Amino acid sequence: MESTTLLWQLRKLSLALEQYTRTLSCGDLTPTQALLLYCLLVENRSGFCASELHASLGLSKATLSSLLRELERKGYLTTQPDPRDDRKKRLSLTESAHARAPELERMMRDWEESLYRGLDETRRRRLAADLELLLHNVRQEITRRTETT
Question: Does the predicted model carry a pTM greater than 0.90?
Fold first, then answer.
């Protein structure tokens, strides 16, 4: 029986996207590492710490830590102690990261084009806005439920 509830559709989409990303080639990066590095490059992040990213990206601390560690190991990030807080490290993008920017830009454009096939620009913008609203609503509901337990 095919269910058409929103939650079921979103779950199926999430699973399909996981399968899709496993088919992508990004050189020495996993698709998730490539996406994170691309986001950091687009935002032109410099001197950021993991806790700032955790809050803005919505990734678990463990997942984010693992991704950042691998990007550093591969030479795309450097770390320095935070002068204001001994517990934190400041992360910066390296020249290698900036050199990958055009390639990552092309990859992201290609990935999005394949996902957006059949949607005109108006529908794409509307979809992006609707997804942001859904994400906002889910986060609010998580906070509300967490606070009441």
Answer: no
